[in-house]
Amino acid sequence: MRKLFRFLKPYKWQALIVVVLTTVQTLSQLYLPTLMADIVNKGVVGQDIALIIQTGLIMLGFTLIVTVSTIVGRLFATRTAVGFARDLRRDIFAKVESYSLREFDKIGTASLVTRSTNDVTQIQNVLVMILSMLLAAPIMAIGGIVMALRTDAGLTWLVGAAIGVMVIVILVIALRVLPLFKSIQKKIDRVNLVLREGLTGIRVIRAFNKNKYETKRFDGANKDLTNTSIAAYRWMGVLMPTIMMLFSVSMVAVVWFGGLRVGAGQTNVGDLMAFQQYVMQVMFAIVMSTMLFVMLPRASASAERVNEILDMDISIVDKTDIIPETTCKGCVEFKDVSFSYFGAQEPAIKGISLTAKPGEVTAIIGGTGSGKSTLVKLIPRFYDVTKGQVLVDGVDVKDFPQLALRERIGYVPQKINLMSGTIAKNVRYGKEDASDEQVREALQTAQASEFVDELLDGIESAVAQGGTNYSGGQKQRLCIARALVRKPEVYIFDDSFSALDFKTDAKLRRAMKGEMKDATVFIVAQRVSTVMNAERIIVLDDGKVVGQGKHKELLKTCTTYKEIVKSQLSLEEMA
Questions:
Q1: Which residues of 494-508 are buried (b: 16+ CB within 10 A; e: fewer)?
Q2: Cβ within 8 Å of residue 384, ≥6 positions away
Q3: Could you say which of 39, 216, 226, 465 is the most buried, measured as most Cβ atoms within 10 Å of its Cβ?
Q4: Greatest mean pLDDT range, 16-30, 122-136, 337-351
Q5: pLDDT digit string (tens) for 237-262?
């Protein structure tokens, strides 16, 4: 957790106030038993009413100091911990936003969610405990032992014996519990993963009547977490009763042996009462430390997981903030490009070389898993190539600042993703300062105006999370409008017409032809009808280019393309 203490720097003055207030509170508590002993030994025995009233008022004053310092200290401790957690979540989110897709693939979305929420909460809770209790516990324990020695050194061996037994109990349980708490956080990841899949895939689950299967799957992950938590808290359940038993036995021993000493005239009743209070304070300090110990192993495991996010090296970083000089606006070139996903044994694409120029449409087609989407994801540098070069505007994409590179590209992903808000807000994701007129123009080109204009609020109509209040084809057209409003140098349509009927598809491509006449266009598609009019068709098979040319040329020269065409078109359409 030490690495995370840097997030406390903005709150150092608040933390210092907590330290001062905690010290005042603890020292005041330590002085109260001495005043009580004076009342009993001098006031009650000597029947000195004035002394009793005077000392009682002093005790009330110290009690007031303890109360105020405790309340204010807890307030500042809570504010510090909550602010710390807020800053930590902010930095985690900023770090995750800078990840390339390789880092997302490595950690997983479900784990990132758990680490950003549950793990940060665990650290926040233990920080409150540290500020509230960890500072007070050693002062109270050491001060209590010193004051107990000063009050009656003959009984101090009882304190030492009780502390020794407590420390042994705590260490034994710690060795058992720490591995279990580390395991709990990983199993929360698993529960989060299964729950997230169940919620996002609810349509598929119901379509295939897999409700019972998914319930059983979640129940398995949930029971695994439950059993591990029970095992951990079973040990923790033993801890507190054991501590309280030792606490009670110690009090009985103090009264027993203290009574013998009072009877023998070796100590006073007031001193015995004060000694008993000091022993209680020492034991309470250990109980506070134990409560912190209950939370510390889990928080420690959470801190390791958070640090893993913050310390992870990002595979895609900018070499410089300077935008390089370009030689060909809109040109895209692949030079002997190969790429492998994280943990894959075989490359997804191998030895690909091609050039795309402004005013041309380059279509990419091939079977499932042939590497079509992988290829176009290398252009905006979502991944870095394993071998070779990808050039945009005549410059290696690695030499561009990522922001400058992606400003040149309008990307429509294979997986449709809309944000909650309005239609206008989603379209303006492509260009923040786009006017309403530009938004409507983009929607018109994307063939989305026909349904947007029928909505009550038009472009200000609401979009639910993920765009669930629109059909697949409507969402696809909104995503296309988001790319069109940007008017970039390079357009990438990654299987972006699959949800459209043939009529809308044809109208859309005709409208886009004039819109993108000066841009470089990449279209990844499964439909032959979508790509057959492209200036260049790239045919991929098993990550390799097996054909390149126009539709009629490929029918004669590329067996793979011919098989794809045969599976979709009639002989007349092929001709």
A1: bbbbbbbeeebbbeb
A2: 100, 102, 315, 316, 378, 398
A3: 39
A4: 337-351
A5: 887 788 788 878 887 887 888 778 77
CATH for 229: 1.20.1560.10
Mean pLDDT computed over every residue of the chain: 83
Q: How far apart are the C-alpha atoms of 298 and 285, rounded to whole Å?
A: 21
Both 267 and 377 in a single domain?
no
- For residue 352, give the DSSP letter: E
Same domain assignment for residues 382 and 237:
no
User: Strands, DSSP E only, in 462-527?
Assistant: 462-463, 490-494, 520-524
Identify the DSSP state of 98. Answer: T
Considering the domain boundaries, does residue 316 fall inside one?
A: no
On whether both 387 and 465 belong to a single domain, the answer is no
Please check whether residues 351 and 306 belong to one and the same domain.
no
220-229 own/partner pairs: CB under 8 Å, 24+ apart: 221/187, 221/190, 221/191, 221/193, 221/194, 222/191, 224/187, 224/190, 225/184, 225/187, 225/188, 225/190, 225/191, 228/180, 228/183, 228/184, 228/187, 229/184
pLDDT band per the 50, 70, 90 thresholds, residue 188: confident
Tell me the residue range of the domain where 209 lies: 2-311
In this structure, are 203 and 76 located in the same domain?
A: yes
pLDDT in tens, 485-528: 988 899 998 888 777 777 887 788 888 877 788 889 999 988 78
Domain count, the chain: 3
Distance CA 69, CA 463 (A): 50
Contacts made by residues 222-231, CB under 8 angstroms, sequence distance 24+ = 222/191, 224/187, 224/190, 225/184, 225/187, 225/188, 225/190, 225/191, 228/180, 228/183, 228/184, 228/187, 229/184, 231/180
What confidence tens digit (pLDDT) does each residue in 539-565 have? Answer: 998 889 888 888 888 888 888 888 888
Number of H helices, E strands in the chain: 21, 12
Mean pLDDT within 76-101: 88
Look at residue 8 and tell me if it is in a domain. Answer: yes
Residue 104 lies in a domain: yes
H, E, C per residue of 396-444 = EHHHCCHHHHHHCEEEECCCCCCCCEEHHHHHCCCCCCCCHHHHHHHHH
190 and 101 fall within a common domain = yes
For residue 111, the model assigns a pLDDT of 80
To which residue do tokens 């070389």 refer?
A: 353
Give dist(CA 229, CA 177) in Å, integer. 10
Count of positions (residues) in the chain: 575
* pLDDT score, position 47: 61
Q: CA-CA distance, 191 to 186, in Å (whole number)?
A: 9
Q: Does 561 lie in the same domain as 530?
A: yes
